[in-house]
Write the structure tokens for this entry.
Amino acid sequence: MMPSEPKLDLLQGTLDLMVLQTLATLGPQHGYGIARRIEQVSGDAILLNQGTIYASLVRLQQRGWIAAEWGTSDNNRKAKFYSITKSGRKQLSTDMSYWQRLTGVIGRVLAMQDEGEN
Amino acid sequence: MTFSFRESLLRLHAFARKKPLDRDLAEELASHLQFAIEENIQNGMSPQEAERQARISFGGPQQSKETHRESRGLPYLDTLLRDIRYTLRTLWRDRAFAAIAILILGLGIGANIAVFSIVNTLLLRPLPFANSNQLAWLDSNRGVGGLSAITYTIDVYDEYAKQNRSFEQVTAYMPFFGSGDYSLTGRGEPLALTGIMVDWNFFQTLGIKPEYGRAFLPGETAKGAYHVIILDNAFWRQHFNSDLSILNQSVTLNHESYTVVGIMPPSFDFGAAFAPGQRMEFFVPYFWDDIRQWGNTVFIIGRLKPGATVQSAQSEADLLMPQMRAAHKDWYNDYPTRVSSLSAHVRGKLRSSLIVLWSAVGLILLIVCVNLANLLFARSAARSKEFATRTALGAGRSRIIAQLLTESAVLSTAGALLGMVFAYGIVSFVARQATLALPLLSSMKIDGATLLWAIAITAFAALLFGLAPGILIASANLRTGLASSSRGATDGKHFHGLRSLLVISEVALACVLLVGAGLLLRSFLRVLDVDLGFQPSQAAALKISYDDNGDRAHRVPILQEILRRVQRIPGVEAAGISDMLPLGRNRSWGFQAVGRAYSPDDFTGAYVRIVTPGYIPAMGMHLREGRDFSWTDDRPDTQQSVIINEAAAKLHWPGQDPLGKEVEGFTERGKTATVIGVISDVRQNSLEDASTPEMFLSYAQSGPEGSELIVRTKLPPEVLGPTLARTMREYSPDQPVGEFRPLQRIVDSSTSPRRFFVLLVGSFATLGLILAALGIYGVISYMVTRQRQEIGIRMALGASRGNVVFGVVNRTLRLAFIGIAIGAVVSFVAGKWISSLLFQTEPGDPMTFVVMLVVFASVALLAGYLPAQRASRVDPLVALRYE
């Protein structure tokens, strides 16, 4: 299970983006589901204390990007389910294009450094 | 961190609903763990291992709750509330300290709030008239002299109103009113009322409308017009029970019928602005033609045109008045006019007193802050371990300073609340001092501006006495921390020196206050000591009226009869009548020695009092030469007699005997009057101004302005008053129920502003002295406690109790004397600054300084002696074992 490389620390704001994306693709999920999903997708490469996801969830909720409701899970357990709202989807697309531009720029800058070293 | 509006609301909401939200989160986290455990079990772990792994990947549950709270609520507010709770807990544990601190702050802040509302009412707030900054006041004779010198004739007023280009509108009122001039009859008991004659546009110019009815109309000042009257609101409420049906009804004043046309709003108080300490009961338009020949009778008030200023009106008047005089040779003089803003006229004289008062309370606030800083130092010494522990547990310097600031904020807020209560008491007490001759006082209240000021000084105090010690303590903690012995981190020389410095500055500040108050008190005592020229004790005045048809021959037997009846009353030692009492209203007439050439610059006016025989002895005035008036020698048909004061004698007959000399100026054309007596000078307008020439004429030979009966008696006025009133009523049933006023009250009213300021500054100085004494006591007492061991050792080595006491007292006095020395120097400078408020007292008055020194030294001695006494009782054995 343990990857050989050290785990990645999350950059400010990236957890919110991952939570939004997870809810957008999977539909309504409870906190544990979201946390597990992020771990799985990242191939357990991210250092995520699952507990920190709740701070992100309440923040997104207050901004009106996700909604929460108590419900019952498949195995008949009471859980709070989160779903993305309309303004959440809008925010997701804004954040996503911002993130892609940023990674693109960072990638190019780093590539330039590589050339310089050679 | 900035939040959107929606988010701020939600955060505030979350902050308020902490408990349910936490419960909700706890449930959610529990279900999270269950999901994780189930999944782990499905993956083949043992139940224990499954739970262990689930908890590992979840992370710290407390941390998770913390971050949840931070991202949903208001973390700063949380911290603040925690700090406040903590502060309240620690203050409760240290109740004695908290109570003293809050009491001191309450006194300091309360005094500041109260004085601010006085300053605000008397000095800062606009006058209670519409656009009051456009209103200007005109004094003749550049404002120098008695009422007759600084007023205008109706002719001058008329002409000026026509010709000036500065004012949109000018109006006038007649200041020669006396209290109780009018008697209201036909409505129950006859009443003595005080009213004022104004021009028809008086209220219009001030921008005030009657609350009910109407203002005066232009025609109502013309001779022969119907008599109309407007009532003051308070008078209407009291005597007509707020009955509106009085409108358009008639009332009888001095046997003439007046129709009530209006009632003023409660906010309008003529006396508050124009005649401090007096209440007007009604307003009537004056009939110009009746008083046109009476000489100078009115003050002029104007509303400036847009663009015109007091300065431009002044320049215009400087040109216009001489021009007008040139066209009217019969005018008395050029009327050299001084134009000032109405606000400056009403408040000008008070400005410096109020600023001194304000500075005095400012000093009190500083002393309070220094005192509190000192107390907090002492307290933090005892708490140094607590701070060290908190630092060790990870609290940063800023957290500890924030905690200390929270403490000072909580203390000063509590102090401010207490201060509000004090201030409210003081303000409502002062506002009720109707006899206090200060303008606008009745409108005093704690208003929005006062509240803002209270908040500002509270914050200022909290920062001042909280921040300085806070920073020092916090930095000291980081250095010494837990390593220090149980004596605490603030025991070092550094802190002791600082506390001594605080005490020294406190003593110096209190010194300045004490000297200032001492100088004012001494001035006040000097004022009280002034030779009035009459004896106010055991004499009282009663306003009387009688019907003589304005005929001198008719008047004599009436007055003789009144005086005969009054003198028959048991207990009456002397009685006499005058038309105007000293220290009240006044008028002056021309007065020249016959045959002497005067240059146009010579002052040839004199105050006039019309009196009966017996008035001079009844007042306790001193006849230096000649004789009093008599009914037999001074008759309407004999040569007019005049009694003058020494000032007139010196001015007109320097080095000669004035008795038998002829005078003119006030006499009928072609006639003269003979000086028959000289009296010692009487203070005419105020106790503080030297007397100017004054003449006394007989009722039998001149026209009086009303009548005041003076009775000299050993009986208290309450006892004699009713008998006197009955005697007067028997004689004339229309006699209104006047008040029998002790002369002392008239004198007191004249000194009341000075008494008021001395009382306030004196209480502040006493407060400052007490606070300084507390400061000294605190520091010395603390020092003694800290040095118990040392004292014990010295005593074990043979030091006597006397040695120990001497040592401690010596150190106290050294602290005090440094403070006194600094304070004395500052006081000397401050004394110069207030010299305009002093009366016959030098700013460097040695007596005041010596008394201050003695008072302070004895207070310091006491403050040092008590802890010294305690130190000397130290048992060496116990002290050595201590700690």
The CA atoms of residues 52 and 645 of chain B lie 111 Å apart. Chain B has four domains: 5-73, 75-126+353-431+441-491, 132-345, 546-735. Chain B touches chain A at residues 4, 6-7, 10-11, 14, 24-25, 27-29, 31-32, 34-36, 38-39, 57-61, 63-64, 67-68, 70-72 (CB under 8 Å). The mean pLDDT of chain B is 85.
